[in-house]
């Protein structure tokens, strides 16, 4: 154990990460009410605006070396406060489409001080068992993103404004808890400056390229899947009018089981390596995607099983690809490399989200449009298989 590491550190960090990331999909959980009040369809733009903001936030943090200049717990709580305010800004400002989208963009920008900073805190305190800690942290991210759907499913009568206030209070509480309870590692004497030259390293170093490309393939599928889980459930109900269930609770279930993929993946990675765990989970999620139209006519139990397996595997590879990128990044440019890989990955999600949104407009209630998500696992496996599938490598 690292000297002076509090025994409760991981519990507090996981809870704070969960609480802060409840902001991420809070807009999606009330999208139907927002669209009804606005009188127009926002579609995938609610999610894409958050993704754009997150990309902007991570790049600004890297360019100005914010994590090296501000204590991690302080940066986390500041980001939680500003993210909470951005989340409820649409309840205060004039209510229109530009304000809604700018609010989601700013929420995403401040999330850049929550999710990556949580991983930085874990990296500061954990050594050989970082893959396990990463599994818990990304699992907390999964719980945070699923929670708004649970809250919405249990509270049909809540106005969307009250709902956003509750989510913001949860995020702020998590930030304050981390700030009060967790110690900080000293700031480095020299700031690591962001370097665009790190982009070249991503493509030149074979192991780093394999890890980054695998992550890119994973990201093509992940956020589009999460954003459109309600649409998948509604499509199933369209073909099975005799069946009835709460779509919000079902969506929560599919997203939240991803915690198992992250947690178990982290434990297995300690034995067989992060690379193999990531490849297996990427393969399983790709197979689930291919089987979706085939299982669309199946019983509720079989279809739900497919969705839950997909929910477990679609995110379970995320902490392992992140661990691999961190491991193979050049030490002198590690911060820039991780930032660029993360930013490119989130930029990719915007294209897949908007593509699914476009296809849903053209072909509503057609499961086959989700086959485009298979491109992510195919690319990820193709680009990283040779480096990480070999039995000689416990990476």
Topology of this protein?
Elements: H1 9-21, H2 26-29, H3 31-38, H4 45-63, H5 66-69, H6 72-88, H7 97-111, H8 115-125, H9 130-153, H10 160-181, H11 198-204, H12 206-239, H13 247-256, H14 258-272, H15 274-295, H16 300-316, H17 318-328, H18 334-362, H19 375-388
Please provide a written account of the structure.
The chain folds into 2 domains: 1-194, Growth Hormone, Chain: A, CATH 1.20.1250.20; 197-395, MFS general substrate transporter like domains (Growth Hormone, Chain: A, Up-down Bundle). The chain contains 19 helices and no strands. The model has no long low-confidence stretch (mean pLDDT 88). The chain has helices spanning 9-21, 26-29, 31-38, 45-63, 66-69, 72-88, 97-111, 115-125, 130-153, 160-181, 198-204, 206-239, 247-256, 258-272, 274-295, 300-316, 318-328, 334-362, 375-388. The two termini are 22 Å apart. The chain is mostly helical.
The share of residues in extended strands comes to under 5%
Structural class: mainly alpha
Specify the number of helices: 19
- The N- to C-terminal Cα distance equals 22 Å
Shape: globular
At CATH level 2, the architecture of the largest domain is Up-down Bundle
- As residue ranges, the low-confidence spans are none
Question: Number of domains in the coordinates?
Answer: 2
The proportion of residues forming helix, as a percent range, comes to: over 70%
User: Largest sheet at a glance?
Assistant: none
- Fold-level CATH name of the largest domain: Growth Hormone, Chain: A
Main CATH class of the largest domain: Mainly Alpha
């Amino acid at each position: 154990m690292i000297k002076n590491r509090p025994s409760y550190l991981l519990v507090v960090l996981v809870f704070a990460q969960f609480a802060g990331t409840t902001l991420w999909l809070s807009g999606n959980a009330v999208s139907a009410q927002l669209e009804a009040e606005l009188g127009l369809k926002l579609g995938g733009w609610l999610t894409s605006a958050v993704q754009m903001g997150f990309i902007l936030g991570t790049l600004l943090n890297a360019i100005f070396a914010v994590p090296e200049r501000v204590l991690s717990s302080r940066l986390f709580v500041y980001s939680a406060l500003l993210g909470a305010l951005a989340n409820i800004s649409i309840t205060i400002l004039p209510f229109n489409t530009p304000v809604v989208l700018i609010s989601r963009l700013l929420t995403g920008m401040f999330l850049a001080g929550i999710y990556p900073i949580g991983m930085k805190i874990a990296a500061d305190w954990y050594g050989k068992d970082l893959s396990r800690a990463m599994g818990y942290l990304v699992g907390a991210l999964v719980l945070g993103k699923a929670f708004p759907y649970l809250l919405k499913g249990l509270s049909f009568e809540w106005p969307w404004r009250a709902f956003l206030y509750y989510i913001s209070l949860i995020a702020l509480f998590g930030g304050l808890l981390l700030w009060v309870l967790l110690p900080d590692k000293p700031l480095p004497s020299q700031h690591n400056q962001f370097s665009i030259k790190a982009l070249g390293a991503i493509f030149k170093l074979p192991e780093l390229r394999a890890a980054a490309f695998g992550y890119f393939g994973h990201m093509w599928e992940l956020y589009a899947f999460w954003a459109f889980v309600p649409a998948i459930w509604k499509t199933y109900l369209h073909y099975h009018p005799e069946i009835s269930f709460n779509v919000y609770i079902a969506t929560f279930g599919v997203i939240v089981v991803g915690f198992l993929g992250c947690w178990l993946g982290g434990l297995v990675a300690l034995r067989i390596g992060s690379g193999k765990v990531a490849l297996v989970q990427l393969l399983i999620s790709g197979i689930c995607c291919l089987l979706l139209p085939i299982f669309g006519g199946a019983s509720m139990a079989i279809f739900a099983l497919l969705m839950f397996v997909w929910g477990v595997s679609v995110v379970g590879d995320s902490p392992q690809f992140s661990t691999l990128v961190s491991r193979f990044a050049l030490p002198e440019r590690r911060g820039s490399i991780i930032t660029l890989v993360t930013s490119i990955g989130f930029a990719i999600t915007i294209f897949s989200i908007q593509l699914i949104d476009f296809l849903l407009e053209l072909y509503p209630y057609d499961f086959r449009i989700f086959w485009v998500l298979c491109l992510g696992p195919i690319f990820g496996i193709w680009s990283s298989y040779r480096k990480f599938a070999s039995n000689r490598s416990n990476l």
